[in-house]
Amino acid sequence: MLLQDIVIGFAFYLIIEGLVYALAPSLLIAMARLLPTVPEGALRATGLIAVALGVGLVWLIRG
């Protein structure tokens, strides 16, 4: 069951990434150009918030 959940999660990741590349490539390029100007601390904080939200959502759904 756990392996199946991991594979499903990875599949959703690929779907979302693919949609971004397919539907908004110019936005992705603009974000890639902007990324080096964002302070490392802000990137780290955003990443940690995203991880916490993801874990919280999984906890609520699987709880």
UniProtKB/TrEMBL annotation:
Key words of the record: Membrane, Transmembrane, Transmembrane helix
Keyword match Transmembrane: yes
Keyword Transmembrane on entry: yes
UniProt cross-references to Pfam families, sorted A to Z: DUF2065
TM annotation in the entry: 6-30, 42-61
InterPro entries (UniProt xref): DUF2065 (IPR019201)
Protein name: DUF2065 domain-containing protein
Phylogenetic placement of the source organism: Bacteria, Pseudomonadati, Pseudomonadota, Alphaproteobacteria, Hyphomicrobiales
